[in-house]
């Protein structure tokens, strides 16, 4: 299965909720309340004396939480460009999570490119963000922190 992934509401915006969704033949979305993102940041600040790239780490963890139950069927992932120039960092973090459950997952199976406003993944993410569609799963800070 080839999937596209999109985000609505940036991870680093602590006053906004965040939604990630993937779509192709099937679709799935996760919702992260702004309160949960703030809690992640609070715990990470306590845990680490120097905290860098926290939005990328949380984004990669959320990407994994989005696809983890489907990883055995996923062959190729296209992620909408959210962080220009940081795709390699995000890919590395995401691969570390994926390879814990699927060690042979190829790095070439993840690419970053613009998927556009008409893609099904974008329409679902935006619909959940605007509360027009219910998310498939609501993510808590603890879910994210277990991966970090």
Description:
With 148 residues, the chain is of the alpha/beta class. 39% of the residues lie in helices and 20% in strands. It contains five helices and six strands; from the N terminus they run E-E-E-H-H-E-H-E-H-E-H. The protein has helices at 34-47, 54-67, 87-101, 120-129, 141-145; strands spanning 2-8, 18-23, 27-32, 76-79, 110-112, 137-139. A six-stranded mixed β-sheet has the order 5-4-1-2-3-6, sandwiched between helices. Strand 2 (18-23) and strand 3 (27-32) form a beta hairpin. The mean pLDDT is 94.
The strand order across the widest sheet is 5-4-1-2-3-6
Q: Please identify the top-level CATH class.
A: Alpha Beta
- Share of residues in helices: 25-40%
Domain unit count? 1
Give the class from helix and strand content and strand pairing: alpha/beta
Rg computed from alpha carbons, rounded to a whole number of angstroms:
14 Å
Number of strands: 6
Q: What global shape is seen?
A: globular
What distance separates the N and C termini? 27 Å
Characterize the biggest β-sheet: 6 strands, mixed
- CATH topology description: Nucleotidyltransferase, domain 5
Average pLDDT value? Answer: 94
Question: What is the oligomeric state here?
Answer: single chain
CATH architecture field:
2-Layer Sandwich
Proportion in β-strands:
15-25%
**Count of alpha/pi helices:** 5
Low-confidence stretches: none
- Name the helix and strand elements from N-terminus to C-terminus, one letter apiece: EEEHHEHEHEH
